[in-house]
Design a protein that fits this description.
By secondary structure, the chain is mainly β. The chain has 8 domains: 189 residues, Jelly Rolls; 38 residues, no CATH class; 46 residues, no CATH class; 46 residues, no CATH class; 46 residues, no CATH class; 48 residues, no CATH class; 57 residues, no CATH class; 87 residues, Immunoglobulin-like, CATH 2.60.40. 1% of the residues lie in helices and 50% in strands. The chain contains 1 helix and 45 strands. The strands form 13 sheets. Strands 2, 3, 4, 5, 6, 8, 9 and 11 form an 8-stranded antiparallel β-sheet that branches. Strands 1, 13, 14, 15 and 16 form a 5-stranded mixed β-sheet that branches. A hairpin with a 2-residue loop joins strand 15 and strand 16. The N and C termini lie far apart (120 Å).
Length: 603
């Protein structure tokens, strides 16, 4: 049997689609993901490519279009096809192209065609493709393989035309060829949005022969030639002949009655069990009328219950003592339910306790302080057991002691000699048998006070500092500080607040010594005519000397440590006065050392 196609107000699938090698026309829709599915918004449509350009044609490479969906709900057209949606050239902001202004865009779709159809007709003689086009703002020109099939001729400005609502239906019949074909659509658009939607319109012109129509009436649930609902259908009989089938489907009636009875009320209409029972009759239109009985037979229950309850949970179902009780009830559906209750009432118990504990043994039974507590527990039979607890909590004690000793000394901690810094504990019993904890925090007097070994990068002397004025230095002098000028090991001795005598040493490395003149006289007498700092280091890895006047004007700078300042600025001699200098250098492990001072210029 040939394929069949339903005729809708907007859709007629043409005869040429029956050829196995012809394209599925629905897949030509923009954003189509096959004939029945649509690409998601934000996805790339790799069937429809787009580019931007000018009135003469594309100027950018063609890239896959981006699916943007309906960017202007209420204005842009919504396609009835389940696989059609709006696409756009991706300027990076979806459909928005305000930064680009008015633009010319081009959308390209390739179509592959066989040489002939089933009737042997050549592709350039028989193939026509009817399509609907929408654009924000207008579809300006359409070409197939470079052959013009449509050109915008309306009077309105094409850049501001309402093509997002007004349909452009075109029969693309010119320029087709065997194999690869290219459809190129030129649209014009002004901000804020640009977009393009194409959908197949198979009500457009095609070549076919129409056979006499068929009119058929059937009942609901039947089918005619594969069709089961009212409507007009197009059947393809051969390569170029179609037939219209007008089908009218009459309704069939059915009625279902639901009846619920109790088990002891059966039979109902001859039926004892739940089920659906149907009788078929003929309606006035000749179709079936089915009367159905949905019968529900509700059970009658006899329930035996054995229940244990605690004394304080009574009454249970109206009973407070052990025994066997028989009651009649109705179920939720109004049927009888007979219950036999075998009830056992269990007793509750009470207990009184007096307990003495130490503080570190708490919590005791959940309690941490002395007091009278009444707790409800669960006994072996699952009922309440009420316990009264008279609790006495005896206090534990802790004594904290902090001691500092001299290095090498020891301390007697309850008979234990200790000499290392740390926290020590000893536990003794109190008169009530509870713990008395003694905690000793032992510290060793500090043995270093001169600091870490150091390197001096930018001075001719270095000052050692002690925490006390009563410091005896390596040369038997006494004082808080000591100036040194040479590399070497130095030491000092002090007595701290704990009475410990402490000796500490330090190694000082003088890496670079400097001499910067504080006065010079550039009077060309050959003596002290140029300002040049001197250093013990012959070569620096980096060096910069800068001289400023009192207003912050840079008068001189050099990166060569052998170049001096002659007291001139821009070829003119500077006035006598005081000038500030800054030196920044790096050498060895002395990195980015900064020196500053001032020099007096005399004339």
């Amino acid at each position: 049997m040939k394929p069949k196609h339903k005729l809708l107000p907007f859709l007629l699938i043409c005869w040429s689609q029956t050829h196995a090698q012809l394209p599925n026309l629905l897949e030509l829709n923009t954003a189509a993901n096959g004939p029945n599915a649509m690409l998601a918004v934000g996805a790339l449509d790799t069937n429809w490519y787009s580019a931007y350009g000018n009135a003469s044609g594309p100027t950018s490479p063609f890239v896959p279009s981006v699916v943007v969906g309906n960017c202007a709900p209420g204005y842009w057209y919504n396609s009835p096809f389940p696989n059609a949606n709006w696409i756009a050239y991706d300027f990076g902001a979806g459909c928005n192209h305000e930064p680009q202004g008015c633009v010319d865009l081009f959308f390209r779709r390739n179509v592959i065609l066989p040489a002939t159809n089933n009737c042997g007709q050549a592709v350039d003689q028989y193939f026509c493709l009817g399509m609907d086009f929408f654009a924000d703002n207008s579809v300006f020109e359409i070409k197939v393989n470079g052959v013009q099939n449509y050109l915008y001729t309306l009077g309105a400005d094409p850049y501001n035309f309402a093509g997002y609502q007004i349909i452009t239906t075109v029969n693309l019949c010119e320029g087709w060829q065997t194999g690869l074909n290219t459809i190129l659509i030129h649209i014009k658009s002004c901000p804020f949005a640009e977009g393009f939607l194409a959908q197949v319109n198979t009500t457009a012109f095609h070549n076919y022969v129409e056979a006499p129509p068929v009119f058929q009436t059937i009942c609901q649930g039947e089918d005619f030639l594969g069709y089961a609902s009212s409507g007009a259908y197009i059947d393809t009989l051969d390569c170029d002949t179609i037939r219209t089938i007008n089908l009218n489907v009459l309704p069939s009636w059915s009625n279902t009655q639901t009846v619920s009875i109790c088990e002891n009320e059966a039979p109902y209409d001859g039926h004892y069990t739940s089920g659906v029972y149907a009788d078929t009759m003929q309606a006035i239109n000749g179709c079936d009328s089915i009367e159905s009985l949905n019968l529900i037979v509700r059970p009658v229950y006899a329930i035996n219950q054995t229940v244990n309850v605690c004394e304080n949970e009574t009454p249970y179902e109206g009973y407070s003592s052990s025994g066997v009780y028989i009651d009649n009830f109705q179920t939720a559906y109004g049927c009888d339910s007979i219950r036999t209750l075998n009830l056992t009432v269990l007793p509750i118990s009470e207990n009184n306790l007096a307990v003495s504990v130490c503080q570190h043994e708490t919590p005791y039974e959940g309690h941490a302080t002395s007091g009278l507590y009444v707790d409800t527990l669960t006994s072996a039979n699952g009922c309440d057991s009420i316990r009264t607890l008279q609790l006495l909590v005896n206090q534990d004690y802790q004594v904290d002691t902090g001691i500092t000793i001299c290095a090498g000394a020891s301390y007697n901690f309850n008979g234990l000699l200790v000499s290392n810094a740390g926290v020590y504990t000893d536990t003794l019993p109190t008169a009530l048998g509870c713990d008395s904890v003694i905690v000793l925090d032992l510290k060793i007097a500090q043995t270093d006070f001169l600091g870490l070994d150091t390197t001096v990068c930018n001075a001719g002397e270095y000052v050692l500092t002690s925490p006390t004025e009563q410091t005896v230095w390596f040369d038997n002098t006494v004082g808080k500080t000591k100036k040194i000028e040479d590399t070497g090991h130095y030491w000092a001795t002090i007595s701290d607040v704990n009475g410990c005598e402490i000796t500490d040493s330090i190694f000082v490395q003088f890496s670079i010594k400097s001499f910067v003149p504080n006065v010079f006289s550039p009077n060309d007498d050959g003596v002290n005519d140029c300002f040049l700092p001197n250093f013990s280091e012959p070569v620096f890895s980096t060096y910069r000397l800068s001289v400023f006047d009192r207003w912050g004007t840079l008068l001189f700078t050099t990166f060569n440590q052998d170049v001096c300042w002659n007291g001139d600025y821009k070829g003119k001699k500077c006035n006598p006065g005081v000038y500030a200098w800054f030196i920044e250098f790096s050498a060895g492990f002395c990195q980015k050392v900064l020196l500053k001072g001032d020099v007096t210029l005399l004339r």
